[in-house]
Design a protein that fits this description.
Elements (H helix, E strand, L loop, with lengths): L1 H27 L20 E3 L7 E6 L2 E6 L1 E5 L5 E8 L9 E7 L22 E10 L6 E14 L5 E9 L36 E3 L4 E4 L7 E3 L6 E9 L14 E9 L4 E5 L5
Antiparallel strand pairs: 1-4, 2-3, 3-12, 4-11, 5-6, 5-10, 6-7, 7-8, 8-9, 8-13, 13-14, 14-15
Length: 282
């Protein structure tokens, strides 16, 4: 009975979110750019996730007890011709996700009446317009307390000379519009459509709508849980830091090959010193 009520609640939230999204997209007058998807079966223009450049101010070395960490701020943006729209599906007990998770669904948009603007997808349209791609889990750590899309980003640290991986971490995001790095993209709204507090849910509610509007990005600061790599066993030397959006390629995008950003670093972990080097990793 509880599972049935949860599914019904999620369906009502999903329907309301999609109705609001369709109305908002009409107000934004998002210009259709044509189908660019890597998946030929995906309708309409798709998002294009990119990891924005990581500056020296985004990097911090931290010591806790005997452990040392490289902490980083990370920003994932949407440089595509369509929004990244993420809605909850069924509770995990009915699909591939765990019992305490929800299926994550990617919504698609299209110029259905050829008027040059994108319309929101309604629930009665073909099933391939609303596709499951992953899972959503509630993250109850301080500083989060909201629903995460799992494995939304991955951080890796590798030795520059050998390429050997020394530390790695996959992190979930509550995906929302927090800054607008590409405001001139056609269809980029002046105001965020996926704002904080609207789509991230709470402990006593199912997840709601999350995503990235065209031209917008979401930033996770280095102080948040999960934004770190353990470098306790790393020696001094040169390293390559690699941050990748959608590392498992679960999200349908117009370009699947530009999700990673690399940074060259010179680290002295024991002395908690680092230097960002010019150029990118090979």
């Amino acid at each position: 009975m509880e599972a049935r009520r949860a599914r019904q609640g999620a369906s009502r939230i999903r329907l309301a979110a999609l109705t609001a999204l369709g109305s908002a997209m009409g107000c934004f007058l998002i210009i259709a750019l044509g189908s660019q998807g890597a998946d030929a079966g995906a309708p309409g223009p798709n998002p294009d996730l990119v990891t924005l450049g990581i500056s020296r101010s985004d990097l911090v070395l931290d010591k806790r007890g005997k452990h040392r960490f490289l902490r980083l701020s990370n920003t994932v943006g949407n440089r595509g011709g369509g929004p990244l729209d993420i809605a909850p599906g069924e509770p995990g007990e009915t699909g591939p996700c765990d019992d305490d998770e929800y299926t994550a669904l990617q919504g698609f948009f299209d110029d259905t009446n050829s008027d040059g603007h994108l319309e929101g997808v309604e629930l009665d349209q073909p099933a391939d317009r609303y596709v499951p791609f992953g899972c959503m889990r509630f993250h109850d750590a301080p500083g989060h307390m909201h629903w995460h899309v799992l494995s939304f980003a991955k951080y890796e640290l590798r030795r520059a000379k050998t390429g050997k991986k020394v530390s790695s971490n996959k992190v979930g995001f509550c995906v929302i519009d927090t800054e607008q790095p590409f405001p001139t993209l056609p269809g980029s709204p002046e105001k965020p459509f996926y704002p904080q507090g609207k789509g991230c849910g709470s402990t006593d509610e199912p997840p709601e709508l999350e995503g990235l509007s065209i031209g917008w990005a979401d930033i996770y600061f280095f102080g948040l849980p999960g934004q770190s790599l353990d470098i306790s066993k790393s020696r001094r030397g040169r390293y390559c830091l690699i941050s990748t959006a959608d590392p498992n390629n679960l999200i349908t995008e117009s370009n699947e090959f530009n999700n990673a950003e690399t940074v060259r670093l010179k680290l002295r972990p024991r002395k908690l010193k680092l230097k960002k080097l010019d150029g990118s990793c090979r």
